Amino acid sequence: MQEFEPKIITFLCNWCTYGAADLAGVSRFQYPANMRIIRLPCSGRVSPKMVLSAFRNGADGVWISGCHPGDCHYITGNYYARRKFTLLKEMLEHTGLEPGRIQFSWISSAEGVKFADVARTVISEVKALGPAKGMAKEFIMSQEVA
Amino acid sequence: MSEKTIGSVLIAGGGIAAIQAALDLADSGYYVYMVEKSPSIGGVMAQLDKTFPTNDCSMCIMSPKLVEVGRHINIELVTLAEIRDIKGQAGNFEVEVFQKARYVDMDKCIGCGACMEKCPKKVDDEYNMGLAKRKAIYVPYPQAVPLKYAIDAPNCIKITKDKCGNCEKVCPADAINYKDTDKTISLNVGSVILSTGFSAYNPSGKDFLNYDRSKDVVTSLEFERLLSASGPFQGHVVRLSDKEHPHKIAWLQCVGSRDVNTCKNGHCSSVCCMYAIKQAIIAKEHDPELETKIFYMDMRTHGKGFEDCYNQAKETYGVKFQRCRVHTVYGNPDGPGQVLEYIDENNQRVTEVYDIVVLSVGMEINDEVRANAAKMGIELTEGGFVKTSTFKPVSTSRDGVYVCGAFQGPKDIPQSVVEAGAAALNAGAGLVAARNTLTRTVEKVKEDDVRGERPRIGVFVCHCGTNIAGVIDVEAVRDYASDLPYVEYVNNNMYACSQDTQDGMVKVIKEKGLNRIVVAACSPRTHDPLFQETLINAGLNKYLFEMVNIRNHGSWVHKDQPAEATLKAKEQVRMAVAKVALFEPLSEATLEIDQNVLVIGGGISGMAAAKALSTQGYHVTLVERDKVLGGQARNLYVTGKGESIEEGLADMVNSVAVDDKIDVLLESSLKNVEGFVGNFVSTIETKGSEQEIRHGVAIIATGAEEYKPVEYLYGSSDKVVTGQELDGLMKGHDAKVENAETAVFIQCVGSREPGRTYCSRICCTHTMVSALHLKEKKPDMDVFVLYRDIRTYGEKEALYKKAREKGVIFVRYSLDAKPLVKEAEGKLLVTVNDPIIQRPLELAADLLVLASAVKPYKDERLAQFFKVPLNDDGFFVEAHVKLAPSDFATDGVFLAGLAHYPKPIDESIAQAQAAAARATGLLARKTINTSGQVAYVNQELCSGCSVCVAVCPYNSPGMILDGPRAGKAEINPVLCKGCGACVSSCRSGALNLKGFEEGQILAMIDAA
């Protein structure tokens, strides 16, 4: 059997972490190809609905990364993101979603090395949890039919 | 000044400085001729792999600028041409330009490359430093602008022997003309900017370097091509003699620089230390096992971020540094490789073998350029660089002729870009009367209304040479995209960013009636504007576009997973297609730009910026916290070129004081700033009373101060002074200085050590000037300079040489063995370890001068007012380290002087003028469009909770107070920055963000 390769929906803010991902590229820092990246203006733009939707569509993990606290391009957006997702993560734990499936980080556009490091860590942690089923539409549907 | 003023400028050169000057001028109302001697613009920067200290990909950051120049309606490229003479006078010059035959009609050539394919003649490729071959008909590199072929006549079989003729036969455009001839043309312009750059030192004929005999001894430019993914070995560094993978690489610094024994170049080339570090780091990133060593005399990492990069090279990457000049390089008699012989710091002879030896060659000005300059009446320095003065850093000896870039003196890219701005400003300032007289305006392509149309999506997939196609199966991604919903057209291109692809895209969009575009290539952060411009040219709303980053987030980071990288690319394209199908055209609000300027800081930089803008006709408010203008310059004595700073400063203060376009507000400070680019309202407090100033742009020039030391008995012994205090004492002919028998300088006080790691850039030169002054006044005074690395970069090296000649004694110390200072019985004793005699030296000093650091004010309030960032050290962070050193990421705010980084007066003035040039470019537009990507409210859904009002940092949402919609939220789109915090916080789903709509993001998630 083929090794399980998780799919991780990744929300990156345009100004910091997306820049860090660009820099990781320029510097050729290698990491596995499990992420599907969605660029947003700010981590503050990510809504809980997006995270839920990702899991419902079969994502094995969600990674949200923005600017360092205090460094937000929009001054306070990342603080709102942090508050929102700390809460959401706890709520989702009650539905049976393993905490490791939602990850946050703060990576500035100068931190190409850190981006690759965190990417590797996120991927390996989600991989260790195996495929996410609890919320995936396809899984739920198949259960109902059975 | 001539009676008739001509509203155009000729720029000689086509490198990054010339490009920036051309753009600044063309954007502010002047027609520009760019005269470049090679077939295309780009200069040396186009050949570089990466740029220090951030290791950005050089071509990636440059190519948008190349295209911008290429498509600018007010820039005319005159290629294969050189200026021969300048007649006339400022405001009205006749410039004689010699243009070589191209043998290809530029109007007809479509850049298809059929000629090159069929050309049988292979020639050494200059772009790859002769390490690869090109054809006799060629473009220098794939992204070249203009992308028009040229025949290299001496190598063409048809032109030399009247045989072949293949290119003419295959050319579909009938562009080949073997009968083309060289010609001399005359251009009538108001000002001239010389930006012809430098020649790299040629190490041929220097026996001891073994360059001529071995392929494995390469110059730094050759090594740059070896490192480059677009180079002859696709970025795999090889030992050229046998193409084997190297294990040990050495860099030899100061080859052709700081050397008057084996060549004539006394100057320091300023950039080699950093590029060697950069190359070593990149080589180590390619292969962490690689051993790298840099042989140097003084490590000169004096720019912003450089010292950190140097420390990182040592500590993180394990690059080794050896202080010495290697005396001999010769082929290894026992096998492959090169033997280096040198004397180490313990005076031991060492022999080491390296696979590759890189010669860090310096910059020089060749004899032809010097002779030409002499003919045109341009005075040069002994080193061949254009002679300029501190207070007019880009003015040549000839009125109306300006200089920027490496021809002004050896320098790096940011400093070249700064000078380019300054030169553009000065060149334009003399022609204000003729502004907008020769420029043309772009005919706006009418935007097609595609609302309500079924999406017709075009997907363009870029190879980026081998950068993407080397890993990802580009054709497979293209074919995959063709089956996605609404996709009508797919294509793959060698370089999506090249001008011919852009032109082709416009054509395809029109022909196929495409109304949404996806480009899968590199980063939207660098290339969004370029492609958006292309959409505009094709009559499409620029927001109907989405980029997929399959390079930086794909091929470059998944090198060993081609299948997974290709799958990821396909899925990311699928996501983008899903999103773009839901895009709607967005409209931008047009705002008037208030034509007044606020300059914050009344030092040299602030005054220079204010003056530069008032000369252009703009009204300036200059705010200074102190009681007088002048800033740090008031404490300084003479410049490195021997000019009196007191006099220069007095002239400046005076010219500002009498200028009725400049309002000076002394003892004033900013209390508040509201608004945004084009429409700022700042509250300024002057001695207790407040006033509001409206302005369209702001320049931050708040400076920095001298660090007050706590070390070396400063403050407790009156014999211990700082560098600036010494200037004051010298100015006042103080007895403490005049009677001193022994003076000791200590360098790097408060710089380059934990807590303040950057190099303060100016202190070495300042110490040289002071030491020389002491020696001049009193030749028998003993003057010692205790230093770590002497950093008299550029032509300032001459001061260091002169100081040694005059008998100043230099003693090196290291960070772990700093000098000790004690005072006993009224005597000051300085003890330091002398590395040459290898024993402690005890100096009885009458005067101890501490070359103290430049310390930023770390003005967090100001940073917050204008939403501009500060770095960890407390300096303001510019928009781009290399290409936008005087801009901020915040529109309408610019940066100059010490607030950016420590720098001497000439560089501060240049940056102030560059900031003014950037501001002028913006003000000249008169109006500005806000982004279309803003939030909006569906008031039917709004529950009136006002969370959006609480969340927004920009006061964009508000609650409607009266009328039928009272109690509902509304967005002021002009204030909205498009972050989307309100949208994701809205509990009713009433808010949305154009361009990043909830539905669009969810569609991407669905498609992931």
UniProtKB/TrEMBL annotation, chain A:
Keywords: Iron, Iron-sulfur, Metal-binding, Oxidoreductase. Residues 8-130 form the F420-non-reducing hydrogenase iron-sulfur subunit D domain. GO terms for molecular function: iron-sulfur cluster binding; metal ion binding; oxidoreductase activity. InterPro entries: MvhD/FlpD (IPR003813). The keyword Iron-sulfur applies. Pfam families: FlpD (PF02662). The keyword Metal-binding applies. This is Coenzyme F420-reducing hydrogenase delta subunit. It comes from Desulfobotulus alkaliphilus. The lineage of its organism: Bacteria, Pseudomonadati, Thermodesulfobacteriota, Desulfobacteria, Desulfobacterales.
Automatic annotation (TrEMBL), chain B:
Keywords: 4Fe-4S, FAD, Flavoprotein, Iron, Iron-sulfur, Metal-binding, Oxidoreductase. Its cofactor is FAD. It holds the Pfam family Pyr_redox_2. GO terms for molecular function: 4 iron, 4 sulfur cluster binding; metal ion binding; oxidoreductase activity. Residues 100-129, 147-181, 933-962, 967-996 form the 4Fe-4S ferredoxin-type domain. It comes from the Bacteria. The keyword Cell membrane does not apply. PANTHER family: COB--COM HETERODISULFIDE REDUCTASE IRON-SULFUR SUBUNIT A, FERREDOXIN:COB-COM HETERODISULFIDE REDUCTASE SUBUNIT A. Belongs to the HdrA family. This is Heterodisulfide reductase subunit A. It comes from Desulfobotulus alkaliphilus. The lineage of its organism: Bacteria, Pseudomonadati, Thermodesulfobacteriota, Desulfobacteria, Desulfobacterales.
